[in-house]
Amino acid sequence: MTVHSAQLGRFIEDFTVGDVYQHPFGRTISEADSTWFTLLTCNTNQNHFNAHLAATNPITGGRVIVNSGLTVALVLGLSVLDTSQNAVANLGWTDIKLVHPVYVGDTVYAESLITGKRASGSRPGMGILTMKTRGLNQDGVELVTWTRSVLVPSRESGLGQDYFPACTSGPLEAW
């Protein structure tokens, strides 16, 4: 019997500059998602929740627009599995551009290009990974872009590994 230990994500040595990760999940934004996020963040711009007022907005074609904070958070979340699941810190985002509106009912996807990788000068056993990430809708239209840097451990560091608890009643094959 082979036991496949619980492990998610990649370590700094697993990344290659120039590689593109098409993140595997897409997420359709519901009206509840949009409304809850807007309420949670206390964003009072009525273009996010008042269809009557939004109907007068020439930029959105009269539609309620999804809060851009939700778009950024969703694209970031979609990218985590491949790029920063094991990261110990976000170091920064730059050049965030909101290039196309997002509406309720849109499905959002994300992809990332690895643009840099280097050993950390101050954290032994860690590396700094830099990537460009973009969100796309179901039609392939680019929605948002940015550059992000994260601190990612090496496999040798032991971080993000061997965290699954040993069962106190013994191994599974004892059942």
TrEMBL record:
<protein>
    <submittedName>
        <fullName>MaoC family dehydratase</fullName>
    </submittedName>
</protein>
<dbReference type="InterPro" id="IPR052342">
    <property type="entry name" value="MCH/BMMD"/>
</dbReference>
<dbReference type="InterPro" id="IPR048274">
    <property type="entry name" value="MC_hydratase"/>
</dbReference>
<dbReference type="Pfam" id="PF19315">
    <property type="entry name" value="MC_hydratase"/>
</dbReference>
<dbReference type="InterPro" id="IPR029069">
    <property type="entry name" value="HotDog_dom_sf"/>
</dbReference>
